[in-house]
Design a protein that fits this description.
87 residues; 3 helices
Length: 87
C-alpha cells in the first residue's frame, strides 16, 4: 500500500485513511502507556514511526534473509530509541 506507484484516487484515499488509522491507533497506545503525553506529541511520534517504517520498506523488500534480519534489527533499535523518551 505504501509503494511509490501511481495510484487511483480511490487507492490514494485508502492509503491516506490507512496511514491515519495507524497514526491514530499508535497515538492512543502511546497515551495509554504515558498518561502525561500530550495528544499532539503522541500524534507526532506516531507519524515519525510510520515515516520510518515506510522508509525502510524498500530495504526490506529487496533483502535476503540475513540482510533482512539485520535491517529489521536496525529499524527496531531506531524505533526503541525514538519511543523510549516518549514512554
Amino acid at each position: 500500500m505504501h509503494a511509490e506507484a501511481p495510484l487511483s484516487k480511490d487507492a490514494a484515499k485508502q492509503k491516506r485513511l490507512l496511514s491515519q488509522a495507524f497514526i491514530d491507533h499508535l497515538s492512543e497506545v502511546l497515551r495509554a502507556r504515558n498518561s502525561k503525553l500530550d495528544k499532539q506529541d503522541a500524534c507526532w511520534s506516531a507519524k515519525i514511526v510510520l515515516t520510518a517504517l515506510i522508509g525502510f520498506l524498500p530495504a526490506l523488500a529487496g533483502s535476503k534473509t540475513s540482510a533482512r534480519s539485520r535491517t529489521i534489527d536496525a529499524l527496531n533499535q531506531m524505533l526503541v530509541r525514538h519511543l523510549e523518551p516518549v514512554l
